[in-house]
Amino acid sequence: MTEHTVLPPIGLGTFRLQEQVVIDSVLSALALGYRHIDTATFYENEAAVGKAIRASGVPREEIFVTTKIWWDQLDGDGPIRSLEGSLERLGLTQVDLALIHWPSPNGEVPMADYLDGLGRARAQGLTRHIGVSNFTIAQIDEALALPVGKYLVTNQVEVQPYLANRKLVEHCQRRGLQVTGYMPLAVGKVMKDPVLKAIGERHGASAAQVALAWVVSRGIAVIPASTNPQHQQSNLEALELTLNAEDIAQIDALDAGERIANPPFAPHWDQ
After folding, report:
1. 114 given a catalytic annotation
2. Do 25 and 11 form a contact (C-beta atoms < 8 A)?
3. What is the sign, positive or negative, of the torsion defined by CA atoms of 17, 22, 28, 33?
4. Contact indicator for 113, 74 with CB cutoff of 8 Å
5. Least CB-packed of 72, 136, 245, 256 within 10 Å?
6. How far is residue 12's CA from residue 35's CA, in Å, rounded to a whole number?
């Protein structure tokens, strides 16, 4: 059984943010009090993220940095080589969390092999913690049954009002894994939602804050992406919003299984 709360409750997602945009976003987030920055090899922004971390003036030990290993780097020593490249680009000697970004498509590389590689990266000190992303219930159970399973701390998956992902989230939590929710604002769709807006009006909050508060109320760490300092501040303040049972029931009813991140190489999702 692993520790439930390794990750800060909120972090800054950086998917699709590049160059000066990601530098400015990370700098403003850290200045506002964010202490988790989420990146990935696939995002091609690790060098810029590292530059912002160094320029922020925030001590390195106060910042929780997550990066991810792409699925074409899972064979043999690939996970170790991938992390070494990430550290070089980030300008760090260690990340706080390294994730397998996606399970090997069609199980081409056996999970035991690539999670062993991730475990060796941890043993070598390239990362403090290890975890997975976009793993299904069956894949989580397979991973936790491996010797390296005891070191896994999170499964990072899409969680937003139109994709509650309830079965998977609750299974991970029962198994002792913290869940990290990406795309919690459904790429902006929540801002226009009449149900979320009405709940927000009752609480003096925005629809986005309501969506984030709902995810957080389920014990999930959130990593919304934002380039706007005002929105970043608003997202932080969502942690202080307490929804009542009626609010939560109304948001729960929005779940329509609408998945945004669903590339051709995705696993066979749990319904």
Report:
1. no
2. no
3. positive
4. yes
5. 245
6. 8
What residues make up the domain containing 115? Answer: 12-183+220-225
Q: Would you state the pLDDT for residue 1? A: 36
Q: Which domain CATH number covers 154? A: 3.20.20.100
Residue 3 above 70 pLDDT?
Answer: no
**Beta strand spans in the chain (E):** 12-13, 36-38, 64-69, 95-100, 127-133, 152-158, 178-182, 221-222
Q: Please report whether residue 128 resides in a domain.
A: yes
Asked whether residue 240 is assigned to any structural domain, the reply reads: no
Assign 95 to helix, strand or coil. strand
Residue 58: inside a domain = yes
pLDDT at residue 217 in the model: 97
Is 251 among the domain residues?
A: no
Phi, psi of 210 (to 5 degrees): -65, -45
* Residue of 34, 43, 114, 182 marked catalytic: 43
Question: CA-CA distance, 93 to 61, in Å (whole number)?
Answer: 12
* 73-103 pLDDT per residue, tens: 999 999 999 999 999 999 999 999 999 999 9
271 pLDDT band, cuts 50/70/90, is confident
**What is the rounded distance in angstroms from the CA atom of residue 197 to the CA atom of residue 220?**
22
- Which residues, listed in sequence order, are joined to residue 38 by a DSSP beta bridge? 13, 66
DSSP three-state, residue 268? coil
> Helix count (H) and strand count (E) of the chain?
10, 8
Q: How many domains is the chain built from? A: 1
Per-residue DSSP letters for 210-266? HHHHHHHHTT-EE--B---HHHHHHHHHGGG----HHHHHHHHTT-----S---TT-
